[in-house]
Amino acid sequence: MTQRLARLTFALAIGLLILTRPALQAQGTVLGTFRWQLQPFCNVLTVSVVQVGAQYHIDGTDDLCGAARKASVVGLAFPNPDGSVGFGLTTVTAPGGTPIHIDATIAIASLGGPWRDSGGNTGSFIFTPGAGTGGSLRPIPAGGIAPGTITSAQIAAGAITSAQIAAGAITSAQISAGAITATQLAPGAITSGAIAGAAAGFGTCPAGQYLRGIQPNGTVLCEPIGTPPISTTVDDPVNSVGVYASLAIGTDGLPVISHRDGTAFALRVTHCNNVACTSATSTTVDDPANNVGVHTSLALGTDGLAVISHLDLTANALRVTRCNDVACTSATSATVDDPANVVGFFSSLALGTDGLPVISHGDTTAGTLRVTKCASRTCQ
Fold first, then answer.
1. Average pLDDT over every residue of 61-77
2. What does the alpha-carbon distance between residue 280 and residue 27 come to, in Å, rounded to a whole number?
């Protein structure tokens, strides 16, 4: 083996000389049989090296650490401009035929250097005249492809369509948020079959409902098919109610609605008892001697209590009512803007970042826009 080492070293050193000899380039010079270990693993490659011009053809086996069946090894070695020698090898593991590609670089002085393979393994490519120095068997991933080694850079546009994807093969576990956009999808790349398969990974909708979307937690969002809206009369006293309505969803998830009682000239609030509001509780919350409840606007405070702006049509003033509980079965009302002009028309209320109501409304005398900012949550 010492003679083989000397022969290989000599052959690599005179590679440039052979390039200048056209007669020799056409012939193959057998340099001998040599061994390298893929440390830190116990795999030892035993290969024959045949020089043809500036290239070294390599054929041999990987002993798979003494397994009953070896793996074939083929490839090329070649001099690099920096004086090192590069190796490009392919092993085909038996049984199963799994290919692994190996890239190694050796220095002339040591005949060794670093290596890495397509399975993500790395180590030292050690010239081994005798037996290997032990270690574990080099792992080979299924299909010879290490996890995460194939990205969009390795996949040509349009290379993967629904024809290459089995139904149910891709689920939410394989797709990160925002990973696939319209620019990655060719027209017709996703068909109903592919969608059905992918949806199976998220879940399915019951009979009579369709898949509306996927929620942030990965579960399906279903919607009834062809179901008309549910409309229910929830406040029907003897009086005429429901004019100038304004609605918000309470902290309990239930709708709360402000509106005018046109018979009693009062402000009324209806709190739904369920999400569909098929039943509700209605309360008159502001019923002074004046005519109030015109142009209502409702918003919810951070405490979950409704605040309502409305017009006092008798005093031509802006009025604010604040509920004392979520259902607004009682409330506190006050006139908050009552100048000589006629104000409070078409009010719109919102809560500022400080939690205090701010209201826009019309001054119909001056024909101008007016804004009222409350100094407290009750606006009193």
1. 92
2. 98
DSSP state of 23: H
Cβ neighbour number for residue 255 with a 10 Å cutoff: 19
Q: What is the pLDDT of residue 173?
A: 60
Token readout for 366 is: 């001056």
For the ranges 6-10, 62-66, 94-98, 180-184, the one whose mean pLDDT is highest: 62-66
Do the beta carbons of residue 124 and residue 113 sit within 8 Å? yes
Q: Which strands sit side by side in the sheet containing 280-286, from one edge to the other?
A: 243-249, 255-261, 266-272, 280-286
> pLDDT tens digit string along 251-286?
889 999 999 999 999 999 999 999 999 999 999 999
Is the distance from CB of 296 to CB of 267 less than 8 angstroms? yes
When pLDDT is cut at 50, 70 and 90, the band that residue 176 belongs to is low
Query: Which sign does the torsion angle of CA 33, 37, 42, 43 carry?
Result: negative
Residue 2 to residue 129: CA distance in whole angstroms: 8
For the chain, how many residues are written?
380
- From CA 281, how far away is CA 279, in angstroms rounded? 7
- Give me the DSSP letters along 252-309: TS-EEEEEEETTTTEEEEEEESSTT-SSEEEEEEE--SS---EEEEEEE-TTS-EEEE
Which among 307, 302, 310, 297 is positioned nearest to 247, based on CA atoms?
297
Q: Are 236 and 262 in contact (CB under 8 A)?
A: no
φ/ψ of residue 153, rounded to 5: -70, -25
